[in-house]
Write a structure and sequence with these properties.
The chain is an alpha/beta fold and 822 residues long. Helices cover 53% and strands 15% of the residues. The protein has an eight-stranded mixed β-sheet, sandwiched between helices. α4 runs parallel beside α9 (257-274).
């Protein structure tokens, strides 16, 4: 379509932008700093702590009150800082996605950011575009628009001149220019967005963790009530039992777990972004780690997606005329430079066409028709249709003899075997009375013009990510609309092995049921791990492949870029698009490749696996550290002995042991062998049975160690303060030691550098300093009820901590066959 108006000037656009504001929908503002701070107090755990602080104040246990207040303050500060960081990171990531639009400014069509559109702008839209503002059509060619977002009607609506189009609707076919009448909040969808702000749904992973936390809360409350009852039976002071029970409850529940989840996912998103991948939501960052099959689009991923004409086959002058007649066809625009250079009569044909020819009608290219057709009228009223498209289709409708068709098909096969892409060209005379062309005008008596031969250079250094995917147990499927020979040539040029027996053509796929496709894929997977190729496919056939894979239990990452890819992208577990994909495809995608590289997909999967590992490390560490305190306290209560640690001491341990190292684990480096594992079993819970066994083992040994040292010291010295000091040191130090064992879930700690997480090193160092201070600085010691202990006692504390470390290493060796499935 030709530009229909001059459009606004740059000056006019700037003035109108200042008057009407940016073309953005009203949206829920990110939480303010005050809101994030206030949210830290919306927890039953904080309510319990504050109640305990009030009670201890009334009981004049001011040291306990101060520590409780200190713990609430520190936990609130840590939670605030982490949630603020995550909120800022998500806001920054969202700002990276800039929808663009084609507008006419100063008589020229140009791409601008969607938010810069103003009333009065002339906007061009075509198939796959999202309408960027409300407006009235000034020129249209077979425009169909999906308005389900506003009307709920699933069928596309036919639009013509003077009809209205609305922001957020989708162009399903055709093209048009429209004049913008309303932008941003003044549009129809803007009014809806302004009146209804929908709360974001919790992700499945968040729901799973919330469920886990609720179950844990119930368990800890039950245990705390038992501690309270045992304390009463043991005739301990009521205030001592109460404050200890409350402190145990707070220390036993990993209240920082959901914050840690947000931080882990946000950090993973940032790491993926550094590798040129933009994850659109938090949970997708973790889901990436479970991918078992990648469906790759050849064009733009294995190749650069930038076509270059290398040759034409046919009369160059006729092809030159075809070029000008099809000026709106993007493929012919790519051929412009080659035609200009090789056509001797280029300028003459150009001048004659501009003066003597007029475009009457056109049929835009769609994946269904696979051609672009233009109706041209010459000055002598002679009318012709010029068609560019799939060669086999145009050959079928052409007037060539069977031998000529056979020779051209052989020529095409030779070109595609070397990785070339080909476009056929044909034309047809029609009566002067024809003003609008249809598909029936195309399917007979075409005059064959020739072929355009293109190359799409392959990307370099792709063999390594393909091999990495293979080592990681991830299967690869290449899906392309190109000829099989072209795809095979590209794959071989990259270095990817190809088995010609593992190729399915689109015409074969068309007649297969999904169950049959599932069966074929299962057979292929069982036979070998070589890539599978689907060639000459239509976009809608991708959905059949995705459904077949999903029915086989695969976790599928699928690439696409067109409007027709949206259903398959949505159906897949991880939808992936390149940076210049259509708006609809981007809306359905979870990962946007800013560099369009397959290597970026593998890097994102690697980060996803690292995220899952770090989540498990944090849970294992927090839960083991939490339950050992309950084990120690319940042990001495059953013996009717004094408590091994006071409430204020438990709260101090909770602060230095849990508060720093578990946050440092959110940024723990990935296992160097992370891509040598098979994908994890998707049916396995985040807290799996082997983790529960390990948590039980570690907390039991840790609690019994502190219990044993307390009882031994109390019996031998009859000094309660001294015995509590040893228990306090044991419970505080051991978790700071075994955190280095928790870091390597699948291997002994020495397999990789145990000190390569600088933040964990600093966290542990800080924890040790805080744990030692009460023993060397008497004011803090008196505040906590601690007194210095002998070197021999310290040796016992260190020995108990090393024992904990060895227990975890030994337990990991027992559970090795389970850990290998992580």
């Amino acid at each position: 379509m030709k530009v229909v108006a001059k459009g606004l000037s740059l000056h006019e656009a700037k003035t109108l932008l200042g008057k009407f504001g940016p073309n953005k929908l009203p949206e829920k503002k990110p939480p303010s700093s005050f809101a994030i701070l206030a949210s830290q107090f919306k927890s039953p755990l904080v309510y319990v702590l504050l109640a305990a602080g009030l009670v201890t104040t009334l009981l004049r246990e001011f040291s306990d009150s101060l520590v409780i207040l200190f713990v609430v303050t520190i936990n609130t500060a840590l939670g605030f800082l982490q949630e603020k960081k995550a909120s800022d990171a998500l806001t920054a990531l969202k700002a990276l996605v800039h929808p663009s639009a084609l507008v006419v400014r100063d008589g020229k069509k140009q791409s601008i950011a969607g938010e810069l559109i103003v009333p009065g702008d002339i906007v061009f839209v075509a198939q796959g575009n999202k309408v960027p503002a409300d407006g009235k059509i000034v020129s249209a060619n077979r425009l169909l628009v999906e308005e389900a977002i506003l009307t709920g009607e699933s069928m596309p609506v036919d639009k013509g001149v003077d009809d209205e189009v609305f922001m957020g609707t989708i162009v399903s076919s055709g093209e048009a220019y429209f004049k913008v009448t309303k932008t941003g909040q003044f549009t129809q969808i803007g009014a809806i967005a302004k009146s209804v702000q929908v709360k974001d749904d919790d992700t499945p992973l968040t729901l799973q963790l919330k469920k886990f936390s609720n179950q844990l809360t119930v368990l800890v409350i039950v245990l705390t009530v038992i501690v309270f009852i045992v304390g009463l039976i043991s005739k301990l002071k009521l205030e001592e039992i109460f404050t200890t029970s409350v402190a145990l409850a707070v220390s036993s529940i990993p209240e920082g777990l959901l914050i840690a989840l947000t931080v882990v996912l946000a950090v993973g998103m940032q790491r993926i972004l550094k590798n040129k991948g933009l994850v659109r939501n938090l949970v997708s960052a973790e889901t990436l780690g479970g991918v078992t099959t990648i469906c790759v689009d050849k064009t733009g991923t294995l190749t650069h997606g930038k076509l270059q004409v290398v040759n034409v086959h046919g009369d160059v002058d006729k092809i030159c005329l075809q070029h000008f007649a099809s000026s709106s066809d993007p493929i012919m625009e790519v051929a412009h430079d080659w035609i200009k250079e090789h056509s001797k009569h280029y300028e003459k044909i150009k001048n004659e066409f501009s003066k003597e020819c007029e475009t009457i009608d056109s049929i835009p290219f769609t994946p269904e028709n696979r051609y672009y057709a233009t109706l041209i009228e010459h000055t002598d009223s002679n009318r012709e249709i010029y068609i560019n498209g799939a060669p086999e289709l145009l050959l079928k409708y052409s007037t060539l003899t069977l031998k000529e068709k056979k020779d051209i098909k052989s020529q095409i096969k030779s070109m595609t075997q070397t990785g070339r892409r080909v476009i056929g060209m044909a034309k047809k005379n029609v009566p002067d009375s024809v003003n609008k062309i249809t598909e029936k005008d195309i399917d007979t008596h075409l005059e064959w013009i020739g072929l355009l031969e293109f190359t799409d250079p392959v990307r370099e250094n792709l063999i390594h990510p393909f091999e990495e995917a293979k080592l990681a147990g991830i299967k690869t499927i290449v899906i392309t609309g190109d000829y099989a020979e072209t795809a095979i040539s590209v794959m071989r040029e990259i270095g990817i092995p190809v088995d010609t027996k593992r190729i399915v053509l689109g015409k074969e796929l068309e007649n297969m049921s999904e169950s049959k496709v599932s069966e074929i894929l299962r057979d292929y997977y069982e036979a070998s791990d070589l890539p599978i190729l689907f060639a000459r496919t239509k976009p809608e056939q991708k959905l059949k492949v995705i459904n077949a894979l999903k029915s086989n239990g695969e976790v599928v990452a699928m690439m696409g870029d067109g409007v027709n890819d949206a259903p398959a992208l949505h159906r897949s577990d991880i939808g992936i698009v390149v940076g210049d994909a259509t708006d609809v495809a981007k809306e359905s995608a979870d990962l946007i490749l800013l560099d369009s590289s397959f290597e970026t997909i593998i890097s994102a999967i690697k980060e996803g696996r690292g995220i899952f590992d770090n989540l498990r490390k944090i849970i294992l560490y927090l839960m083991s550290d939490s339950f050992e305190e309950i084990v120690a306290v319940m042990g001495v209560m059953l013996l009717q002995l004094p408590l091994p640690v006071t409430a204020v001491q438990i709260l101090w341990i909770n602060l230095v042991s849990d508060g720093l190292p578990h946050l440092a684990l959110t940024v723990d480096p990935k296992d160097p062998k992370i891509m040598r594992r098979k994908p994890r079993n998707q049916n396995e819970n985040l807290v799996s049975p082997w983790m529960k066994k390990l948590i039980f083992t570690v907390s039991s040994v840790g609690g019994l160690s502190a219990f044993s040292l307390f009882v031994y010291s109390y019996v031998t010295t009859n000094d309660l303060i001294y015995a509590q000091s040893i228990a306090f040191a044991t419970l505080g130090i051991n978790s700071l030691v075994y955190v280095f064992s928790v870091r390597t879930l699948t291997d002994p700690f020495w397999v990789e550098n145990p000190f390569n997480n600088i933040w964990l090193n600093l966290a542990v160092l800080g924890g040790i300093i805080f744990q030692i201070i009460p023993f060397i600085y008497s004011p803090v010691g008196r505040f906590l009820g601690i007194e210095p202990i002998s070197l021999a006692s310290w040796a016992l504390v260190v020995g108990a901590s090393l024992l904990m470390f060895l227990v975890i290493e030994f337990s990991k060796s027992i559970f090795r066959h389970h850990l290998a499935e992580v």
